[in-house]
């Protein structure tokens, strides 16, 4: 079902949810772009673009508040990367700028390739920072997709042939956040017993009731899904079901490998685009085989209109431009460390990354809940204005 | 519509079958209420209707269960989803999606109902259940009553012929459960749905029932019209107890019927001062707890707003009010473990919030809403020994307390295997090991049957007589009427009424117990009061 006038620009004013797949394509495009460069200015730009789009288009749902945690996680990644580089400083070329020296720990002969401690140079710290920053940006791009798209809506794409997998994932996605809540409840309750022990015994005191609770809830949810008819296509012949499941799982593996190949420049080329295509083909075959006997319908499916095309294409364009620029002249994207040089902001990649900012304006805003007597509505206004 | 043919269900590791040789035929369009004590097999009976028992729970089923001609042996629950809709006790546990609309559509999606039909049915159901203005609301923002209505709506959209409800109102306040029950009766009357419903608080449902399915507890099942079954069933609402005492036949089931029958009884009690429903607390009350200006906030929401509470030794106070009125927040704040943004609590000249958890529980003990949160060891004996150690009490004192309040709980039993009532008693014994002056209980009556509730009432009265000050939060008006000296009603975080039980609940349409409604305006609360006053002389009977 396509929303009336989904193509026209005017429809972009009407609040609705953008298809989760579009956000995922956009985010993967942005992530691909991030992996192609170690230029901190470009990476910062990617991060800013992701942040602005998230701020402009996220909903009020609980998962939509997670972006700041991804940012925090990114900082941790950078810190770990730098800490390891300082500890395992590695060998030094001549002409590097020493920052400081930490005590050197001699290692036995068979570990001669590893150096623990010693002189720390500005170049090595900087290179670790760039590396860490790239990884952190990548994480935040995926985080942006998770923030913008409802994970449960994305799950609805799963074909009925994967019944067990579907139940497992749905239960996990639903029960995991509840675990946090029940852990808090049990911890509070334990204080009532005056039990302030710490360590292993305390863990047992919290873990036992929480796990019991989680098991209980998972079971009840699975029973409820079953009672409500989930997986009714279970009477598809077992052979067809097995075929569908193996096609889909193989396709998924191909997709993962292909994405990895595309993202990591050092892997053989065959692991990149060809593997991705192979994965897509397998998965499609799985959907076709499984879909033939699926008896399920969709309530108000998310339409795929102008906004979705724009979002997906912007992400893909950014990735493509960065890949082309990288193949043409990699030095633009990777600032020189030997000798040390200030990173610059090259024109073409900058424009390419800014292209991914378009969805912030060219998608409809998320729908506002039925107005609550709290500060929701005005808050939304301000966020929109900032974008 | 539903047919049980010599059905015997035995769970693995069970020594005796839970249900034995059950023969049951439920014709279409009936509202059946399943009654029986905890553990008598109500949930098993209900689960067998759509095949969750034994497909999901394990166990062996002999005989045959069929619904609308479909045998549950060959049809797993998902293949019965278009005929049977199931609503469980805890609605949030069965929610698969995030918003009301998606939840309502979920079942239809699985049944491959065309999108246009789905859209129409969702709109109809939203109107039928009065949820239209909440349609986009996330499920976690709803109140318990609204959630329960969503859960009912979610199975209704598939247009099932049978609706199975397992204690649909157990978590709801009196008004919320009225809403849900009104919805259910409307479905039976207007749409001809067959309803099978288990319920502990019978006073809420018997008047709507066409048929009662009674499980005496030995695995057998007895069924028939309400006035026939209730002549001898061991579980009965106050209205039936009153009718039995007064010798009314047929037994009245609705307040209206009973009022008509009670004209003679009402004349008989004219001028008699009712004996107290609860043995009175002491004459010269000693203040056990004083609190002033308590404020509790959860983020932007003010849960408790400048509340003053005083508790006295030997007194049982009931805390009532809607779901979300701030009852739990107040109890946690009084205990000292919960958040408190303002105000002061004083017990023995000290504020429990300033003390370590080990010391504050010596002043104020709290039994939380899910008592099992406090239990994590493998046997009753270990829990009790640990409780003694935590409270620095004499070894064996927790055991002695447990034996006094609930005899017959063996050392070797696993706390998870106890019945709801026994588990509550165990937690109570654990908390009493610290000998707190003040004891708070958050919704202890949830999931308890009449016998267990009666027993809890006796325990609380004995504790009060021993000098404890007790607060019980509860939605159960009958329990409150027979147990509490004083009632505090909260709304929106404030105390709106505070006074002795009779004066607070008799006047309130939502909180009045059945006896008070029948004998209004005379201030009688419980059947027990009438019995003790000796008003049931043959002259009063008809």
Can you tell me about this structure?
Chain A has 14 helices and 2 strands, in the order H-H-H-E-E-H-H-H-H-H-H-H-H-H-H-H. Chain A folds into 3 domains: 9-153 and 318-387, no CATH class; 157-230, no CATH class; 237-297. Chain A has 387 residues and is mainly alpha-helical. The longest helix of chain A has 30 residues, at 163-192. The two termini of chain A are 30 Å apart. With 542 residues, chain B is of the alpha/beta class. Chain B folds into 2 domains: 2-236, Rossmann fold (3-Layer(aba) Sandwich); 287-492, P-loop containing nucleotide triphosphate hydrolases (Rossmann fold, 3-Layer(aba) Sandwich), CATH 3.40.50. Chain B is built from 20 helices and 19 strands. Chain B has helices at 42-49, 52-55, 100-110, 115-128, 144-156, 174-191, 226-229, 238-246, 255-261, 263-269, 327-335, 357-363, 380-391, 397-405, 420-432, 450-465, 477-483, 501-506, 514-519, 527-533; strands spanning 2-10, 19-26, 31-36, 60-67, 70-71, 84-87, 162-166, 194-198, 211-215, 222-224, 287-298, 301-312, 316-321, 342-346, 364-367, 438-442, 469-473, 486-491, 494-500. In chain B, the strands form 4 sheets. A 6-stranded mixed β-sheet of chain B has the order 6-7-8-3-9-10, sandwiched between helices. Chain B has a 6-stranded mixed β-sheet with strand order 15-16-17-13-18-19, sandwiched between helices. In chain B, strands 2-1-4-5 form a 4-stranded antiparallel β-sheet, covered by helices on one side. The radius of gyration of chain B is 24 Å and the shape is globular. The model of chain B is unreliable at 538-542 (pLDDT under 50). Classes of the chains: A mainly alpha (387), B alpha/beta (542). The interface between A and B is large, with 55 and 75 residues.
């Amino acid at each position: 079902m396509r929303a009336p006038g989904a193509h026209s620009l005017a429809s972009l004013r009407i609040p609705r949810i953008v298809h989760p797949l579009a956000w995922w394509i956009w985010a993967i495009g942005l992530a691909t772009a991030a992996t192609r460069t170690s230029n901190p200015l470009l990476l910062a730009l990617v991060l800013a673009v992701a942040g602005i789009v998230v701020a402009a288009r996220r909903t009020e749902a609980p998962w939509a508040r997670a972006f700041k945690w991804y940012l925090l996680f990114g900082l941790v990644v950078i810190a770990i990367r730098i800490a390891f580089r300082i500890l395992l400083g590695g060998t030094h070329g001549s002409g590097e700028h020493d920052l400081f020296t930490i005590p050197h720990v001699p290692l036995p002969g068979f570990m001669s390739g590893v150096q623990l401690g010693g002189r720390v140079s500005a170049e090595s710290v900087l290179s670790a920072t760039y590396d860490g920053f790239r990884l952190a940006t990548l994480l935040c791009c995926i985080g942006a997709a998770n923030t913008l798209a409802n994970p449960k809506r994305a799950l609805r794409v799963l074909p009925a042939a994967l019944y067990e997998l579907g139940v497992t994932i749905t239960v996990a996605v639903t029960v995991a956040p509840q675990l946090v809540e029940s852990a808090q409840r049990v911890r509070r309750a334990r204080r009532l017993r005056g039990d302030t022990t710490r360590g292993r015994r305390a863990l047992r005191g919290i873990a036992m009731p929480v796990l019991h609770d989680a098991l209980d809830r998972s079971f009840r949810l699975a029973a409820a899904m079953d009672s409500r008819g989930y997986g009714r296509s279970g009477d598809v012949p077992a052979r067809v079901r097995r075929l569908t499941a193996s096609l889909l799982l193989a396709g998924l593996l191909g997709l993962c490998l292909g994405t990895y190949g595309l993202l990591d420049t050092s892997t053989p080329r065959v692991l990149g685009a060809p593997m991705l295509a192979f994965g897509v083909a397998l998965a499609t075959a799985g959907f076709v085989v499984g879909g033939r006997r699926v008896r399920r319908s969709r309530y108000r499916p998310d339409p795929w209109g102008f906004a979705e095309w724009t979002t997906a294409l912007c992400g893909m364009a950014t990735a493509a431009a960065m890949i082309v620029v990288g193949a043409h002249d990699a030095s633009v994207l990777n600032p020189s460390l030997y000798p040390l040089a200030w990173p610059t902001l090259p024109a073409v990649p900058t424009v390419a990354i800014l292209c991914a900012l378009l969805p912030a304006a060219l998608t409809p805003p998320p729908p506002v809940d039925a107005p609550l007597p709290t500060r929701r509505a005005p808050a939304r206004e301000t966020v929109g204005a900032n974008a | 519509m539903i047919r049980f043919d010599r059905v015997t269900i035995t769970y693995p590791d069970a020594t005796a079958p839970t249900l034995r040789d059950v023969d049951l035929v439920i014709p279409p369009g009936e509202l059946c209420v399943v009654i029986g004590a905890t553990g008598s097999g109500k949930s098993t009976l209900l689960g067998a209707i759509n095949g969750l028992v034994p497909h999901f729970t394990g166990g062996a089923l002999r005989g045959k269960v069929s619904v609308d001609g479909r045998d549950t042996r060959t049809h797993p629950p998902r293949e019965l989803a278009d005929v049977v809709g199931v609503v469980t006790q805890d609605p949030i546990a069965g929610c698969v999606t995030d918003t009301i609309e998606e939840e309502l559509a979920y079942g239809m999606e699985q049944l491959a109902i065309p999108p246009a039909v789905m859209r129409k049915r969702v709109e109809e159901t939203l109107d039928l259940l009065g949820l239209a203005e909440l349609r986009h609301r996330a499920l976690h923002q709803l109140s318990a009553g609204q959630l329960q209505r969503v859960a009912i709506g979610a199975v209704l959209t598939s247009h099932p012929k049978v609706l199975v409800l397992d204690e649909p109102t157990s978590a709801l306040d009196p008004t919320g459960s009225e809403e849900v029950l009104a919805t259910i009766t409307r479905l039976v009357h207007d749409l001809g749905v067959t309803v099978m419903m288990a319920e502990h608080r019978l006073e809420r449902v018997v008047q709507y029932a066409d048929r009662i399915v009674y499980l005496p507890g030995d695995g057998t099942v007895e069924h028939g019209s309400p006035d026939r079954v209730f002549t001898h069933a061991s579980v009965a609402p106050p209205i039936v107890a009153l009718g039995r005492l007064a010798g009314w036949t047929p037994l009245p089931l609705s307040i209206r019927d009973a009022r008509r029958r009670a004209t003679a009884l009402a004349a008989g009690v004219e001028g008699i001062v009712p004996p107290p429903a609860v043995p009175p607390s002491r004459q010269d009350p000693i203040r056990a707890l004083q609190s002033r200006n308590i404020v509790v906030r959860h983020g932007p929401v003010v849960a408790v707003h400048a509340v003053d509470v005083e508790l006295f030794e030997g007194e049982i106070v009931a805390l009532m009010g809607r779901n979300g009125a701030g009852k739990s927040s107040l109890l946690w704040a009084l205990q000292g473990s919960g958040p408190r943004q303002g105000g002061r609590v004083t017990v023995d000249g000290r504020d429990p919030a300033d003390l370590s958890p080990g010391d504050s529980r010596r002043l104020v003990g709290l039994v939380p809403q899910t008592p099992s949160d406090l239990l994590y060891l493998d046997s009753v004996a270990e829990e009790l020994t640990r409780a003694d150690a935590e409270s620095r009490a004499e070894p064996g004192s927790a055991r002695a307390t447990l034996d006094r309040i609930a005899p017959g709980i063996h050392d070797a039993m696993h706390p998870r295997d106890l019945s709801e009532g026994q588990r509550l008693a165990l937690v109570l014994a654990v908390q009493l090991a610290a000998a707190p002056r003040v004891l708070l209980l958050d919704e202890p009556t949830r999931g308890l049957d009449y016998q267990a509730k009666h027993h809890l009432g006796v325990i609380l009265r004995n504790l009060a007589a021993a000098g404890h000050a007790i607060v019980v939060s509860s939605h159960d008006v009958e329990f409150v009427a027979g147990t509490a000296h004083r009632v505090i009603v909260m709304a929106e975080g404030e105390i709106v009424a505070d006074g002795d039980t009779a004066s607070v609940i008799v006047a309130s349409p939502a909180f009045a117990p059945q006896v008070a409604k029948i004998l209004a305006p005379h201030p009688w609360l419980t059947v027990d009061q009438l019995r003790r006053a000796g008003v049931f002389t043959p002259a009063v009977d008809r």
